[in-house]
Each structure stands twice: as C-alpha cells, then as structure tokens.
C-alpha cells in the first residue's frame, strides 16, 4: 500500500519550492517509487530523493497531475496522484450594465446600475473581490448590494448593484482582486461613474462600403465605423454563414479600429461579413452590428480546360467551350485560335456557349484555343484536334514470351491491344523501333495485311535476333494512310524459358530451384524463401516455423516468410504462381467458366503469427486481385490443408500473400500447392495429379497413382 504525505490537491504561489512525498506502507520485496506527470513530462528542474519529488521555484507551466507509482513486479503497481495548482491572475475587466428592466443604455438618475468585475485566475474560486467607493470600502446596504458571484455574468464575476441611483452615487468605484494570504500581486480597476462617463456606440458602414468588389488575388479592406461609444469598444468580424471560418482560419477576428484587411483574396472568401461591437471594458448593452458584402471578381471558369480529340479526316468536328461560372457574369469577348493564329469568324453571341465547327483535314490538325473574357480576366479551353491514332497498349502478361534460337540469340513474343481503333482513320500497320543504349538497332513497319485492329483484341509480333541475356527498348506506333500515331515504349528482358505445367497436372512441392514457375512479386516489401530443414539458419527464431516439409522429411523443401528483423509489422511478401492461360467455354452449363480446385498445405506456428492471404489475380487489360482465402494467428504446430474452388473469368494467377505479425515469432510456410481442373472433392487428394517437384516421401505411390489414372482413362475411352 502507498499513501501521499500531502493532500490530493496542492495550491502554491509561483516561485515556491514544492515537496511531494509518496510513502510506501507495505510490499515485499520493497517497492520502487516512480514519479510521472500528466499532461507532459516532469519539469527539467524536478529532482527525486528516495520517495520524495522536489520541484524548485515552480511556475504556472509546472501545474498538472503528478503520479506516484510503486512497483515491485509482484501483482499490479500501486498508484496515487496529486493535483498541483500554481496560482495565476491576469486580465481584470469591468462591465457597466444600465437598468436592464427598463431597457436603459445610459446612466440615468432614479434607475438601477450594475458594476461588474472579472479576473482570469487559477484557481478561479479562490479569488477575493473588494469594492471601494472613492477609496472607502463598500458594504451591503439598501442602496448598494454586493454579489460575490453574479449568476447573470460569467463564472467568477463579482458585481456591485446601485439601487435607484442618486447624485450621491456618482463617484469613482474601484474593484480589487487578490488571493488572500498569497504573494501573487493584486489587480485593481477604477471606474468613474457620472452621467456623461459612458455612452452607447454607434456602428455604421461608410458610404459605398456596403458592397466591396476586388479582383481575385488582390488586397481589400472592409470598414465598420464606430462613433459616440464611450469607452470605444473593439470590433469583432465573422462570416454571416455559421459554418464558414474567417480567411485566417478562426471563427472571429478582433480589430481595434473596425478595419478588416484581407490579402490575396480568393473566390471562396466571397460573401457577407458581420461586424459587431465586442463586450469589453464598457457598457454591457445589446451589441451593435452591421454587414459588409465582399464581391470577388474572377475570370470565367471553363470546361474543358484541355481535351484530346481524335477524329477521322474529312469528317465534321465540333468544339464546345462551356462557361460554368463567371464573376462578373457578363462576357466581354470570345475568340478562337489554331496553333496560336486567330481564326477570323463572325462575332459569336456572348450569351451562347462558345462553339466552333469545321471539317477536319490533314492541313488543319493542331491545337485549338477558345479564349473567353470578362472584365476580371481571360480563361482558355484548349483542344488537341488530330487524326493521328491513339497509342497501342502493351500486354505485359504474355505467358512465356521468350523463345531460344540457335546460338546465343532469342526471340520475344510482343503483344498489345489498340486503344480506341475506331476513333481515327483505318490503321494499316505499326511502326516498330528496337533500341539498345539509345541507339536504334532496327526500325520497320509491321503490316497488318488488311486486318484491322479490334478494341480489346490482342495483336502479336515476334521480335527476333535478340542477344542473350540483353534487354531492349521497344517503341511502337500505329500507322494510317495519313499519319503515324503516338509512340509507346517498354523494355523487354530475357528470362529463362520455363515450360509451365497445365493446371490439370500440377502439384508443386518446391523441390526444384525454379519453384515450378512461381515468382516473387516486385511490388511487395520482402520475398518468400525456399528452404528445408538442412538449409535452415541455425540461429533462426525458436517456437515458430516448421521443422520439416509437409511430408515430414528433412530433405523436402517448402516456401516460407521469415519474421525476424529487419521485418516490421504489416510488411508483405507475395509469391505468384505461373500465369494459366485458360479458356472459358468449358464451364458448367450457363456459366461459361471452367471451375478449378486450389489446394495447399500451410504452417502457422507462433505467438506473433500475422496473416496468410490467398488472392486470385485475373489478367486482362488490367489485373484484378481478390482475396479468396485468409487465415490469421497461431494455428498449431502441424501442417494443415486448405482447398477451395475458383471460377476465373480469364487467364489467372494464384497469389500467396504473407503479412508479418507484431513480432519475430511469426514465420509462415506453404507446401504442396495444387491447381486442378474441376471442383474440389470432399477429401481433396492428389490421386489424379502428377507430382512435379512434390514431396520426396511418396514417389512410388505418386507414380502408381499416375499409372492408374492413365489406365482408367484408356478404359473409359
């Protein structure tokens, strides 16, 4: 048990030294006492001596909750806290409130008057107010009433009410605020009360200032004039719409002279601004307020700002430049230009949408501009009008594009689709350029031989005479009878060809170094690793990861992710299967899709296991990933089997995504991955699959299974 030698709340003056002692009354072994503070850290000057915390010459910044914690690593820690309050006092203000029951706004004989005094202090409730009249203390009487805490004013406000004011009440009143017995200096305010000592303010806007116009980006001044106010109050500015902030980012801006200065004005500053008197030292009466309208002028807002327009030659083209907004709304000029040259045409109707119609010809392809003006400026719609065809779009997922030729040469199967082939004149071929180190090695035309490109349909060309193992830049552009289109480029790289197994005969145990055509995802954070018991790091993390492969042999390989440093929580590793180019016409009746069974074994042992996701990546012009299986957390010490059906809509890959957990005991492994045609059976086995790089412990059974499958297949036929 622990107890504090001081009260739960300690109030001190600035500059005092403070000692806080935390006495431990029980505990074995002897607890250690630790001190902390909220909010923030302990002051730099804080010292600890045993169980005592010493604070020298405290300031208001040292105030807060100080926590004493006793710890001996047996059971839960014991805690106590003390609230340290450092006295402060500032900003003494006064208010004069005429007789509110009679709507008075001036000091009048025979009516009530209230003087109020407030100081910002800590602790607020400990402030003592003393009132004086011409230097003599004021006490409660029939004509003078003292209110220690005025319920009609802000908390901590003291008031003196003068009842049925007489000439004898015209005097100088003083309010003194202090902390009794404290060294904090007292604060004092004097108020001279006479029939002409105060007067209500008059708030107005100068002539012509109700609406102020300025061009966007300029500077402007909004003005509210204060007259006859005694004392003169400051002016508060705000937006009339409640949800809008001032340009400074605050709800209210105070100005001493009633002038609000705005710089670099933007259109979102446009609107009504409210100016009103502030309740500062002076009359406590109804606020005066008025409004000023800010009008921000800006050039027309047009649509489109830029548009790439493709068309066939000798067809009509229409360019439209819509005016969305404009301030002032009246347009002053509309002009059209081609390649910077003014197009002479009848003056367009300034009230209609600007429009230009013409027949596109090889000679008038180019950049067209529509320049629309108002008194604030000019804006432009830009159109790139051309009969050049759009660029081709390379297809990067061609299965096994490399073919080895004789010697050290190889060829590459380049595939692409044509973007919007119907937009321009008929495409008759493609111009292909092969470059190495910025030098052109080959440039020629690919003839389509009368076959026009179709949207979304793959086209192919074999690039030959490439040297192993070099990579090359390929540039490709479509050709029409009038022009050549936009070039697009990519890098083609040599990779070792691999004869990918079909999904119907594939079980991968990762025994071959080529890991059955699987590959690492280049966009992830780290990679999967191929290993077995014999190649394990002897210093690997204990209590996580498999000891053997799925079959229980130390020689058998598997793929795994290592969760030790430098890995951090959330890091991802993705392993990609080969791309399976499957057709979609053999599926169940009406579905049009072929079903496949995906089967694999996983090992997720450890208290820091993250997540294993299996994703289906369907390839088309773009790739789409979707999670089809997931598992998180510790799953026990053994290998476990998972299987599920998929029905991909096109060429696909299976992606194994391992996500690192909160710490190092989080290794995840996979083994014996199988992708077979047809739906999964209740007990998914490898009876109808040939093991390629599979487990070493069942070679005879696997070959017998394969032979049985072949025999049954012949018998069925």
From TrEMBL:
InterPro entries: Cell_Adh-Cytoskel_Orgn, ConA-like_dom_sf, FN3_dom, FN3_sf, Ig-like_dom, Ig-like_dom_sf, Ig-like_fold, Ig_sub. It is a lipid-anchor; GPI-anchor. PROSITE patterns: FN3, IG_LIKE, MAM_2. GO terms for cellular component: axon; neuronal cell body; plasma membrane; side of membrane. SUPFAM superfamilies: Concanavalin A-like lectins/glucanases, Fibronectin type III, Immunoglobulin. It comes from the Eukaryota. Keywords: Cell membrane, Disulfide bond, Glycoprotein, GPI-anchor, Immunoglobulin domain, Lipoprotein, Membrane. GO terms for biological process: homophilic cell adhesion via plasma membrane adhesion molecules; synapse organization. Residues 530-553 are annotated as: Disordered. Residues 506-682 form the MAM domain. GO terms for molecular function: axon guidance receptor activity. Residues 530-546 have a biased composition (Polar residues). Signal peptide: none annotated. Its main location: membrane. Pfam families: Ig_2, Ig_3, MAM. Residues 398-498 form the Fibronectin type-III domain. Residues 1-83, 98-192, 200-293, 299-386 form the Ig-like domain. Gene3D superfamilies: 2.60.120.200, Immunoglobulins. This is MAM domain-containing glycosylphosphatidylinositol anchor protein 1. It comes from Stegastes partitus.
